[in-house]
Amino acid sequence: VSAPAKLVAALLLGTLLPHAAQAFQSGFSLGLRPVAASSIKQFSSPARRTMLGSVSMGGKLENDLMVRVARGEEAERTPIWLFRQAGRHLPEYEAYKKETGCNFLQLLENPKHVAECTMQPVRRYNLDAAILFSDILVVAEALGIDVEMPGGKGILVPRPLTGPEDFKERIPKSINVDEKLSHVIESVTLIKKQLNGKVPLIGFSAAPWTLMYYMVGGSSKKNQEEGERWLKEHTAESKELLDILTNVVIEYTSAQIKAGADMLQIFEAMGEFISKESFYEFAMPCMQKIQKELRARHPEVPLMVFPRGATYSLVDLQQAGYDVVTMDTQTAREATREALATAAKESTPPNLRRGAAGLQGNFDVKLLKAGEGSKEEVKAAAEAMLKQLGPSHLIANLGEGLTGKEDPELVDCLVESIHSVSDKMIKEGGAVPA
């Protein structure tokens, strides 16, 4: 046999035989579902681990850690992405705004700008997912609500709904999201093309209550009681508005999946401004309907949810079928993990794992602030979080979004610490939650 032929044979044996064994151990999965962590450890090459990666709506992924963990599968390390990972804390983002002459809202109008801003943190950090660069109020805009961003005051709705008559006059019963939000859907397609399978893309939407909160109150900082007042004084109209918003959110997020999004995040960002009683009467039914409809339409797409300020609902959101539930900064870690496991054993939730939901969160963003935190503190806090929660069935993230005052070097330290510490813990047989 010639030397070139021997070389080819050696390469084939070295590449194919491990995958043949891997496919055998995983039940001839054909790469559609990855093998368990115990099997993965037998193969030393990271490239081999990803060659049989997940197949998503947008095609094969090189790094499918996020998707696997969200589906309830084992992984060789804890994946990480960050709320508001794109945007103000990045020097390249500020430079891009200056170059284009666009403010935040103007950037969102152009798919090219959206794609660039989405890609910036993926280029800088070793993140396990990209998230669509967008805003929670694009759904409200699509329904005809004006949104502004005056300097230093955050997002504002200058003309909030004043009452039931104003609501009936201004808000349509339904919209065509493929028309009203076509620029967002086009952005998803463009981002998927630019990612080229590097990491999954997270699509997202605000939850109905959060949208209603802004539509009737106008600001996160003022009129904070207005939404709750609507629920009590205009109950029928509030339910009607929430129903409209729920249907639009379903269509909007479904369109993102069709355009290539690999997983979805629903943000109930204003959970702290609704009473627990009202949350379960008004907000929870919307969240349940969103999960049920999206699971029916896209049965393999993981669904993540973040009820910021209302994490008392995490067990119920798990039982509603969400695959990953998110802790804010104040959420007790071990108690939450235990509560989810107990509830799942008592009644099997209709999520992809058919068991306890994955957890997401909840690193304290304050430790990343420029001039205040240190790499040693970040590493120690990351390790403490992983020890409290366990490295498996966890998506590392923040307890709230980046504010724009963070040091990119500390952010990078967090990402790398999560990867290195979790990798070591899993290899050494670190505790795996039930």
Distance between the termini: 53 Å
* Strand fraction: 5-15%
Widest sheet, order of strands: 3-4-5-6-7-8-9
Main beta sheet strand tally, sense and closure: 7 strands, parallel
Give a short summary of the structure.
The chain is an alpha/beta fold.
Question: Can you give a write-up of this model?
Answer:
- By secondary structure, the chain is of the alpha/beta class.
- The protein contains 19 helices and nine strands.
- The strands form two sheets. The chain has a seven-stranded parallel sheet with strand order 3-4-5-6-7-8-9. It has a two-stranded antiparallel sheet with strand order 1-2.
- β8, α18 and β9 form a beta-alpha-beta unit.
- α18 runs parallel beside α19.
- The longest helix is centred in the middle third of the chain and has 25 residues.
- The radius of gyration is 22 Å and the shape is globular.
- The termini are far apart.
Comma- or semicolon-separated keywords:
alpha/beta, two-stranded antiparallel sheet, 19 helices, 9 strands, 50% helix
